[in-house]
């Protein structure tokens, strides 16, 4: 399930791309497949990084020297990279988990080259507020969401670091009702019939990409997209 739209974060041959908080690898692998780039994923969770490595095996191009793939366990507040290292940085559905998210943004600014592109996505405010209202456990689980962002305020925090915002869209509208159902039936979500059936719909959509759901989600995203996705360029004097 890809949140970043590479039409708005174009990857050029030879780019060094960082996926900060890569989780189980959806964007770090997608970037590798998108172009001839050097794609690096960073996460605190060793288990997630192992899963990413396993998923990547079927996509690896070991004889293609024009691209590479790497993973590292590191803290978002202390990245093991030099200043001005990366051409593109992705941080998708991560900042809502980090107590000092502004510190993470400063690290992103530090390791991104002047003129480089940065994509940040977080849960959209009003669908997220419904999840919080329906379930305490949703946001009180270890490693869960610790804040609800107002997109305009997050954009302002990023722009204060010398970034220029150039695009915004919303994503995953079909997933908003799914998470509301999961929150409503939190203690029985694994066995609840409605949750199970909705999950089957999402898996079908992900695997088959039918026109009916693709069109429906495109229409629904501005209204109830689960994620807000923002794109920035770092100032040349940043």
Write down how many β-strands occur, each being a DSSP E stretch of 2 or more residues: 7
CATH superfamily of the domain at 16-128 and 137-173 and 226-234: Vaccinia Virus protein VP39
Portion of residues in beta strands equals 15-25%
Structural class from helices and strands?
alpha/beta
Radius of gyration: 18 Å
CATH topology of the domain at 16-128 and 137-173 and 226-234, what is it called? Rossmann fold
CATH architecture call of the domain at 16-128 and 137-173 and 226-234: 3-Layer(aba) Sandwich
CATH first level of the domain at 16-128 and 137-173 and 226-234: Alpha Beta
The major beta sheet can be summarized as: 7 strands, mixed
Strands of the largest sheet, in order across it?
3-2-1-4-5-7-6
Whole-number average pLDDT?
96
Span of the ends, CA to CA: 32 Å
Would you list the SSEs in sequence order as H and E? EHEHEEHEHHHEHHHE
- Helix residue percentage: 25-40%
| Low-confidence runs of at least 5 consecutive residues | none
Shape: globular
What is the tally of helical segments? 9
Core attributes:
seven-stranded mixed β-sheet, alpha/beta, Rossmann fold, 238 residues, single chain, 7 strands
Overview of this protein structure:
The protein has 238 residues and is an alpha/beta fold. The chain has a domain at 16-128 and 137-173 and 226-234: Rossmann fold. It is built from nine helices and seven strands. The protein is globular.
List the helices and strands and how they pair.
Blueprint: E1 16-20, H1 26-34, E2 38-43, H2 46-56, E3 68-73, E4 86-92, H3 101-111, E5 112-123, H4 125-134, H5 136-140, H6 151-159, E6 163-171, H7 175-184, H8 193-208, H9 211-224, E7 227-234
Parallel strand pairs: 1-2, 1-4, 2-3, 4-5
Antiparallel strand pairs: 5-7, 6-7
Helix pairs in contact: 4-7, 7-8
């Amino acid at each position: 399930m890809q949140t970043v739209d590479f039409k708005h974060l174009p990857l050029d041959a030879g780019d060094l791309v960082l996926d900060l908080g890569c989780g189980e690898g959806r964007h770090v692998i997608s970037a590798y497949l998108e172009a001839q780039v050097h794609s690096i994923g960073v996460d605190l969770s060793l288990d997630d990084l192992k899963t990413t490595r396993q998923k990547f095996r079927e996509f690896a191009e070991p004889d293609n020297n024009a691209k590479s793939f790497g993973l590292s366990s590191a803290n978002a507040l202390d990245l093991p990279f030099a200043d001005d290292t990366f051409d593109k940085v992705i941080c998708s559905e991560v900042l809502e988990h980090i107590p000092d998210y502004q510190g993470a943004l400063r690290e992103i600014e530090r390791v991104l080259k002047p003129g480089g592109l940065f994509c940040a996505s977080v849960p959209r405010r009003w669908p997220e507020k419904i999840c919080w209202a329906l379930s305490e456990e949703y946001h009180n689980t270890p490693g869960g969401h610790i804040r609800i962002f107002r997109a305009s305020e997050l954009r302002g925090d990023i722009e204060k670091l010398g970034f220029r915002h150039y695009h915004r869209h919303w994503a995953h509208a079909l997933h908003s009702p799914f998470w509301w159902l999961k929150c409503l039936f939190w203690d029985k979500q694994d066995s609840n019939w409605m949750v199970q059936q909705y999950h089957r719909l999402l898996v079908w959509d992900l695997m088959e990409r039918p026109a009916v759901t693709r069109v429906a989600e495109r229409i629904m995203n501005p209204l109830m997209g689960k994620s807000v996705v923002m794109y920035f360029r770092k100032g040349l004097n940043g």
